[in-house]
Queue: 3 jobs
Job 1
Amino acid sequence: MDDAPDQFFRELDGLLGPRGLIRDPDLMAPWLTDWRGRFSGRALALALPASTTELVQTMALCARCAVPVVPQGGNSGMSGGATPDASGRALLLTTRRMDAIRTIDPAARQVTCEAGVVLQALHDAVAVHGLRFPLTLGGKGSATVGGLISTNAGGTQVLRHGAMRAQVLGLEAVLADGQVYSALTPLRKDNRGFDLKQLFIGSEGTLGIVTAATLRLVPGIADRLVVWAGLPSLQTARALLLHCQAQLGAALEGFEVLPQPCLDAVLAYLPDARAPLNAPHAWHALIEVVAEPSEAASLRDRVEAALASAATQGFLDDATLSSSETQAEAFWLLRDSISAAERARGPAMQHDIAVPVERMPDFIDEATRTLETAWPGVRAIGYGHLGDGNIHFHVGASAGSDRESWEAGHGKAISRTVHDLVTAWGGTISAEHGIGQLKQAELERVGDPVALHLMRRIKAALDPQNLLNPGKLVVLAPGSGNA
């Protein structure tokens, strides 16, 4: 920080004012480490623009002074994509003060809001109009709209509604040189060439900083039921998913799976938790079904009929339906606590991967056998979103392992093996958490060379000085690091 030109800070302070620029190391510290605690860095300062105009002026100044910028939303990412490197050369820039919900159009079922709007606040704002934003996740109390767009976040409703990319109707973003790409007005048909807004969705702030978006909304729900089912195998879970899709159609909103060891870990981790079913099962499914007002009266009857026919065909061993909203939330709390419970059990390599939906059960079986054979004593556990093929695949260390040495040795080799396996199965090493800096080297190792070449060319065209989130997702040339 001491090496930064005084003139740069004088101009930046003039642009942002006392509330918009933080240089105190103690005040900056919480934002210099990622949510998981894996990555920490340094920054020249923390910039907090309050409007698109202030962000434009900040980026123009940074471009003129060749100062790199690391954009950050709620700092709830899983891959270190919003954490600066250790050089201290970059300006950390957060959009958290840009938190206005500009317009809600109930008739069009659209909302236009700024990048710093927190997901929970968005949910609450549109619910007043009898609508909902159809994306949710465990970090909804801190994740921001800009961060969700930049990482193309997923969540538990992808089965019915798709990931964040499917929710974005229009977009505003500031480029590396301070220009504004403005396409907030959605059009059902627009054939003027490239759909440029798609470039910024999932680009992790490497091509531009999202400042606002127009998002689609769906009708609010009048009722929901959550089912907890016990199953003999993951293949049976797949059959149950197809059965539920055929029987319940668009009412089926979520379908999660977890093995018995995951549930055991959660029950040990949460002091007041209890198992939903009376006996253990090899696998469990968490199924969410919702109804709009016109269908609410028949929802329980439809779900009960679907479960009864599934049991007759051998697609489940046991099941229970939520009798209240409190019980529905209790079921989801078991699912949402898996990561914390697994982390409490000891060192583990956690992988956010996906394979074609129909191959997910067989992949988990093969990957588990491969890893537990190659590294005796480890425990491999796969769980997640069966409906979209997204697997959270954790490989826990053998008993008594030291976290740091195990992760650097066996853990790193295990992750390479997992990524090799998922690539061979036609999948992806990142399903919903992004590449960031955590998987950047692995993407270069296993990624399609043509796709990587195209991404680098796009990055070079939009950010020739490499100022936007350097060292994340893709670097301008293999082996160039964060420069």
Job 2
Amino acid sequence: MIEFFLNGRRQCVEAAPGTSVLELLRETLGHCGTKEGCASGDCGACTVAIAEAESAQPAPWRTANACITPAHQLQGCHLVTVEGLAQGEALHPAQAAMVECHASQCGFCTPGIVMSLFALHESRRQVPATPLASQTLEAALGGNLCRCTGYRPIRDAAHAMSTQPDSPPAWAEDASLESTWRALGRASCATHYHTPQHLTELKQLRREHPQAPLVAGATDLWLGATQRLEQWPVVIDLRQVAELRRIEAEETGWWIGAAVTYREWEPLLQAHYPAFAHLLERLGSAQIRHRATVGGNIANASPIGDTPPVLLALEARLRLAGPEGERELPLSAFFLDYRKTALRAGECIVAIWLPRPEPDAQLRVWKLSKRREDDISTLLGAFHWRQTGERLHDVRVAFGGMAATPLRVPTVEAALEGKPATSETFADAKHALRAALTPLDDVRGSAEYRLTAAANLLERWALTLDPSRDDTQEVALDAYAH
């Protein structure tokens, strides 16, 4: 049984383990305003807004792709769909602006776009007079595709929201509503999905249900249900496990809980690793970043996962827990082969160690993909180093999309270590790269393309180190740097 609030009204419903929020809305609750487009979290047609009990007060509205959000994760939340925005004939500013700017064409994607604009509008209530920055708008709408190519009027509508009469939904005027849905609690009372609160409970559940999938953000796992029609008798949800939800600061770094979302992790990266934080802006969409977790990106062991190459370049470590207790493992020893890891039976990732940057250390991260927003990497390069005078030290070079696993390239590092940052040095590094790697060859890019592109990233890195470049060149490089 799942208890939550939908557009201000309490719901109590049953749902099978593989049920998505989209299925629950359309097939069980009869709310058909939310549309299914891709069923893989790419198009944004199914976007909804969710406020969670763990959030600050008042709880912010976070967009999510309903097609790949597990229904059981609504427990103790407030879900808002496009049907819940208008108050009688009075439209929400997001809806009114879409009408005024003629921003809806075929209309299929419109509900998802409206929900992204709703969340954007609500997040700006504290700063209504501040101009809407292009970067903020792009982040808010980056996960919504319009097949009719109506992006200009949609952008116009985003800017026009602030000029519309403020007509909040009827449920928003109920001052006691938030405390009511928060009181429901997040613990599950079902027998087919489990939400352990602590690591000891998780270990016990894994012993009882060794075949049950572990669910956190579900942004990749749930494709098994939507694309491959997989069914799971039991699932174990990690989003409430306290030990997996923490960010623990120590003198030399941080332990990032495996169930910490990208959105929750982002402020720390912005403060200490801005190049890494910039990468997150291209990792999926806002809908994905609100739910996806760094632990899931690692455990998934995809050769084109975005965070593992960067973490390899930063020499991250993992804390693992299983039946035999806890252990630590360098991330470089975790990936064994395609989708194969060093996890033992019953083990899970508890946290990821991120070292504090040294004062003179630098990081560059470059992602190549077919489109800038909400796309999977064809190739990702991460470059970490220190520089004393002209010479490079502590060089670490890692790539994703070049082999069956994300990897560091020791021969390239050796070609650069202790050497001056000259064109000759980087020519040697590119030669070492071509000799060391035989890249993947698939629909996203041929082996030769990937090898050439990886060498070009080394050249781009060299250009950023050239003291003779002017500010215009630096800005041009930075425009593509992440």
Job 3
Amino acid sequence: MSDFDLVLTGRVVGTDRVRENGYVAIRGGLVERVGEGAPPAAARREDFGDAFILPGAIDAQVHSRSQAGQEDFVWSTRSAAAGGVTTIVDMPYDDGMLICDAERLSHKAREAGEQARVDFALYGTVHPEQGPAHIAEMVAAGAAGFKFSTFGTHPERFPRISSDMLHACFAEISRHGLIAGIHNEDDEMVRAAIARVMGSGITDYRAHGMSRPAVAEAVATATVYEIGAATGCSTHIVHCSIGRGYDLCRAYRMQGFDTTIEACIHYLILDEEHDVARLGGRAKINPPIRSRDEVEALWRHLASGNVTVVSTDHVSWSAARKDDPVMLNNSSGVPGLEVLYSLLLKGLFERRMSFSWASRLLAANPARLFRIGHRKGALDIGRDADIVVMAHDPRRYHPAASGNNVVTWSPYAGMELPFRPVATFQRGELIFDGAKVLAQPGAGRFVTPGLAA
């Protein structure tokens, strides 16, 4: 056979360069050729002109079920498809069911398979009374990694795991070659800071940052990296809001340890003095959004190659959970799947950085992190043809306008985005046409780690 099923032409963005007159040829849902110049013959051709053709994003941190009866995979993956995210990695802290054994993980995979419009992978975790007992069975059930928290948000839904138990869990995970992902805030320091803030009478936007100081994040980061070093476990910080955390990650990597670190998109876009002050509870996130100086420090780390992946930490709380005038009473987290790609390209564009950074941070690196690079993460021969096309078409973001989000609010509402998705493809099939999500619930597949990743 000489003809392909589909050929896309445009500015093809790889991890190392941009092919200005490029093409991607697809057959059987897989990428079969990537090149420059005259495209090969195909049953169908889509010419996107000067738009950018990039690998579909793998969002490394999504909470589809944090609020029962609210979002679920039907909506989270709809937002994902509309934003050029073709795989989500869902967190294990579901409202009413901690994903801490194989039965629960498999149950979640079955239900997500009935709902999801894009592909999905799943984190597992442990119950503090069970420790590593169920890790091996969750690996066999397809867990892509394991998530732990050094801060106890809730004793059952989002529990703290002690350093001693983390050591035992990391040692077991190391046997299976997967990652341990960490919510990195020191429990004792944060609780003391919360008590001080509450005693001070400060209740406005300032309360959140004061209650979760940067040093608490740095201490927890250092602790878990040292546990990873002691056990040989790949250790991943799932969100870092401070430059010091990236310094620590780099230092451990230079010593030969497999340490990685994640910059959520809100830490690269929003700041405390302007955005949190304006938005209040709608910008409450753990760890907190920091100062503009810290935001720029994170961009310097990104440009230096010290950021492993960029994610959303997406969660669509109902407005009632985000609009309390007492800052600390609000739930933590924001939606972002629909604008992840647009926001990162905005930041790169404004700093005159290559869009190849997006291919690395949103696709290639998360594919390696979750050991799914045998199928996902790049416009390379043999990979799934998961693709987003981003066109330069400046518009202000209105989260209620598209109909692709379960909530109508966003901390990014009103922000001008220079680029927007005009097409999303999953395994070579068009799932978003620039206006409407075409993928139906059940179209997504459960993605599990592979030996060749």
